[in-house]
Specification:
Elements: H1 22-45, H2 51-60, H3 74-84, H4 88-106, H5 110-121, E1 127-129, H6 132-137, E2 146-151, E3 154-164, E4 172-179, E5 182-190, E6 196-200, E7 213-223, E8 227-229, H7 232-245, H8 248-264, H9 266-273, H10 280-298, H11 306-334, H12 336-339, H13 344-357, H14 362-371
Parallel strand pairs: 1-4, 2-4
Antiparallel strand pairs: 2-3, 3-7, 4-5, 5-8, 6-7
């Protein structure tokens, strides 16, 4: 099911002509989140894909806050945090969209950038990122599930990916496929291509409204103008910090709301909640430290030093762990009133586990840190 009504969006040619004020954009993103999005959180949680809301967030500038000089990521992360304060499922879809734009920002293929960057940044093209399997493969956890063969004018690709999010019949996504005798290739895929089949997934614990499908490719032709990098490894190294840091927006927004949940029950339950080990003041201090570290790292996403990369991985690990801790303690503070199906507290707990297991998951991040030089 998809929430779709007519919207007025920026046309791609208006992208560079529009002077996007980050403060104004963030204010509008927050307004849409607390009004329109808040009314749809339960429907999204139950499986409605909010296409119209994604376009409204695009109109507000949510997917082009990292287009400026140096491509600092702070604005994009804060935009996703404001969305995730209301609904982490939608925050995750915003991450998918922002990451699709991030791929195009970093591609050296001018044909791909000219054709798709403005369209993705303005929401004319919606889509996601199929890098869960490649990110695991680079650390020996899985092998690449997609196989490609070089042909005239592009590649022929086949294979199956079990979960790719923010998809629909007219969406795009980025993927990496192995090529025998050559480096892996990263490219865009058009879901409308007849060689691409989207298969609904089994219901999840949460995130059912995120447009997540299994994707099957049968002899798909990927033209050269949809190739992001003919050698995926240097490309991934260039954009990996941004890929991971952008996920912090989900965690920051979710933790903010978990603290709000704790404070909402201070008056009726504070006399007994004071005996709980974790109080909202402590979580606020933890959040402030996380936001400060993410903010500092987001300012220089192309820093290629070992120390920077270790800090990025450590910050992402902390974001997942603290999301679960915040949601767990919000549930303890709310008690039975948070345990009913209609409560956003139980939804936050389910969403928090997603932040901890989405690629790169907690266990992979720990593996990555263990493999890094001291």
């Amino acid at each position: 099911m998809s929430l779709t009504v007519p919207v007025t969006a920026l046309s791609p040619h208006e992208l560079h002509a529009t002077d996007l004020d980050p403060a104004v954009a963030l204010a509008e993103i927050g307004r849409i989140a607390v009004t329109d999005l808040s009314a749809w959180t339960r429907a999204i949680d139950e499986g409605t894909y909010p296409a119209t809301l994604m376009h409204r967030f695009a109109d507000a500038g949510a997917f082009r806050l990292h287009l400026g000089g140096g491509h600092a990521l702070g604005g994009a992360i804060e935009g996703m945090a404001r969305i995730s304060e209301v609904c982490a499922s939608t925050g995750f879809m915003a991450w998918c969209q922002n990451t699709l734009v991030w791929y195009l920002i970093n591609s050296e293929n001018e044909a791909a950038r000219a054709k798709y960057l403005a369209a993705a940044a303005t929401g004319h093209v919606l889509g996601g990122t199929a890098l869960s399997n490649p990110m695991k493969s680079f650390f020996g956890i899985e092998t690449l599930k997609l196989k490609g063969t070089r042909v005239e004018g592009g590649y022929r690709v086949k294979g199956v990916l079990p979960w790719v999010s923010n998809l629909g019949p007219d969406h795009f996504f980025g993927c990496i496929f192995a090529v025998e005798g050559a480096a892996p290739v990263m490219a865009l895929v058009d879901c409308a291509d007849p060689a691409v089949t989207l298969k609904p997934c089994e219901p999840f614990l949460a995130m059912d409204g995120t447009g997540t499908y299994g994707v099957q490719m049968r002899d798909l032709f990927v033209p050269d103008d949809m190739v992001l990098a003919h050698d995926a490894m240097p490309f991934v190294k260039k954009m990996r910090a941004g890929f991971i840091l952008l996920q912090a927006g989900m965690a920051i927004g979710l933790i903010r709301d978990c603290i709000a949940l704790m404070r909402e029950v201070e008056e009726p339950l504070g006399h007994v909640n004071r005996y709980l080990e974790v109080q909202p003041e402590q979580m606020s201090e933890t959040l402030a430290a996380l936001e400060a570290e993410v903010g500092a790292l987001a300012a220089t996403p192309y820093d290629d030093s070992r120390d920077y990369w270790r800090r990025v991985v450590a910050a992402r690990l902390l974001a997942g762990e603290k999301s679960v801790e915040a949601a767990h303690n919000a549930m303890l503070h709310c008690g039975a009133r948070g345990y009913v199906r209609a409560s956003r507290c139980q939804r936050r707990l389910r969403e928090a586990y997603f932040v901890a297991i989405v690629t790169p998951a907690t266990k992979q991040l720990k593996l990555m840190l263990d493999q890094m030089p001291a």
